[in-house]
Amino acid sequence: MMLHKDVESVLLSQEKLEKIVKSLAKQIEKDYNDKEFMMVGLLKGSVAFMADLMKRVNLDFSIDFMVASSYGSGTESSGRVKIVSDLTLPVQGKDVLVVEDIIDSGNTLNFVMNYLMTKGANSVKVCTLCDKPSRRKVPLVPDYCGAEIPDEFIVGYGLDYAEKYRNLPYIGILKRSVYE
Ligand code: 5GP
Ligand code: MG
Ligand code: MG
Question: 44 alpha carbon to ligand 3 midpoint, in Å?
Answer without folding.
Answer: 8
